[in-house]
Amino acid sequence: MSGERREFAWAIVSASVRGRLAMRLGHLPPAGHRVPEDFTSVAVAPTADPNLEDAQLARLAELGVRRVRLDFTYGDAGGPAEHLLERLCAAGYRVTLHLLQPFAAARQMPAADACEEWARFCAATLTRHGPRIAEVEATSTINRRRWAGYNVRGMLAAWRIAHDAVRRHGLPLAGPSITDFEPALNVGVLALLRRRKLLPDLHADNLFCERSTEPERWDHKILGHWAAPWISFNLVKKARLLARVGADAGVPRLISPAAFWTLPRIERVLADSEEKQADYLTRYFVLCAASGALERAGWGPLACHREGLLDNGEEPYPELERITHYARVDGAALRVRPAFRAMAACNRLLPGRLYEGRLSRSQGLEIHAFSDAEHRIHAVWTMNGLAAALPELYDDTDLTAAELLDRDGNSLTDTGAAASRLATLVITESPLFLRWPIARRPAVRTGASPLRGVTVHAHGQGRLYYHRNAAWHGMVRAQDGAEADLLLEALDPSRLVPPARQAALRHARNAIWTLDDPRHAGGKLVVKQPVKHHLHKKLLDRLKPSKARRSWNGACELLRRGVATAAPVAWLEARDGGDLTRNWYVCDYVEGGLSVGSLFTAYNRGQAAPSGITPATAHARLAEFLVRMHNRGLFFRDLSGGNILIRVGEDGAPEFSLIDTARIRVYRGGVPPRHRLSDLARACHKLHPAGRLEFLAAYAAALGRPLGAFARLRLGLYDFKASLKRRLRKTRFYQSLKR
What we know:
With 739 residues, the chain is α/β, with parallel strands linked by helices.
């Protein structure tokens, strides 16, 4: 083992033995610190197109950042990167100039020729631009050799050269540019630098949260999901621990130069990827500010089709990650994404404020308080899919006095008779800001937490409102308070009486019927109410949320994951919970009577292409639809052909949506194979044997792997079970139980 490696390993062992890599209660942010005025930053990159450069600078001014980070490497002198640097300095931005070697040159370090070239580059760049920049960041992602190219000796050689050059020019130096949360590496690298008297002025770590999916979630990548709640490493604890690691080494100032969520990574599970990216950005910056450990936190690319605040169009992603080298911006135009507006709001609401503390104890609900000379601001959100009701978080008088701002800083204040409905808004994963005059001290209710047993789709049309009175409670989605009042009046439980059996869409265990949609003339809503329960259901269902709420939750889980279903409008239920039939689920009415069950029955009768849909097209499209649903963790559990509706698109291809969503089960990863087969057996039950094999083959092709030897057996077992069930239903014993 080389000397550097021994030093590295010993520093980690020493820190571990002394308990410096643990932090009891570190996940709780301390109160009483002020967020720096220039707390946020963003990375920018050059372009050869003058119009695109002008557009970037115009958007930067709208964004409201005071600091920018610019990558600068060999060949950039005299080119677009230098031109952009000069314009940024002239515009008054505090520029972090990120000096880095090309990948091939970094791999050659510490060879003499590579060192000499790096030394010439650093000296020339700082001589020319040093007087105008705010600080220098040197090297890049040193713990990702496949990105940056460094080994330990190469990194030390490159750092020594950059360190000496920066010191000669009297500039602050940031580094060592470690990416993600790997605190042992920070300990080892800083120990090497300290021993050689090469420490930076600012300890730089690109503090990503992508691997945890959500900024506030316990990081399961450290010791697994089972241990995550026990070790409680969330973003706050990570930042505080890294700050302590730096302080132990003699570098107490911590920054996170760049972090981001890529759209493809979000889209592995969730829909609304651009909205989710904006949610994560706001939550990330609020938590970074709350931690008190970070002097500055930055977003990665300003403009990039995969993770930028601005979308520059579909361009091939470069071989090197943009976190390693954000080299250039191409494209014809820059489209503003929700994340841009979210960051602009953070820049207006967070920097310069005093952090007063975290006001909630529930892990699923975050409430963080900030203040300045004029206002007191609470940033409020839940974790993904959860919901909290404003009336259960704050006193009515505090809600009446508050100004509500959405994630993007827009006022949500309604006017007119429905203004009071604003106080019943539902808090979701998309943050809200509540703002009061500084003289008011709003208090959060003791025990504030998300609503139990409720899932919501935060990015559907309109807003979510929670309603509660002495007899019943529920939730409604509406465009504004006036529409919410209209819906709640029409859906008052005293009016939701099932029609006669012959007038209902269905009247068996559940009554399903339509009523006029008060929002749209001629529109229809569908109401579902349970009317009878088998004996075992009467016992088991008392341990679950009401059937209406389960239907709402299932529909929201589908929509969150990009699987089509009839849009949920409301769920309502009696508050006493004594009568299992006193609950109602309301959704939009879906036109058309075509379902997969009726389509497969038509194939069985010999029809070649009912509604213009051939078997090959139906099998392939349905397989793709179900693979996406299963890969995103949704086990439907009642996937009969009648519950899969079909709409023929403009191109003549079938488009699918699901109904009867009360039984859905959600998995953290993809659905296990045996449950996939359970869904598939129900879906193709009415299809003839040859068609089933074709459908299973299409599913396996869309999945990218075979279904296994027991796939046909599973379908046969389901056929036997369905046949046996039909026979039992005709027996006197079953009929007596049913009565």
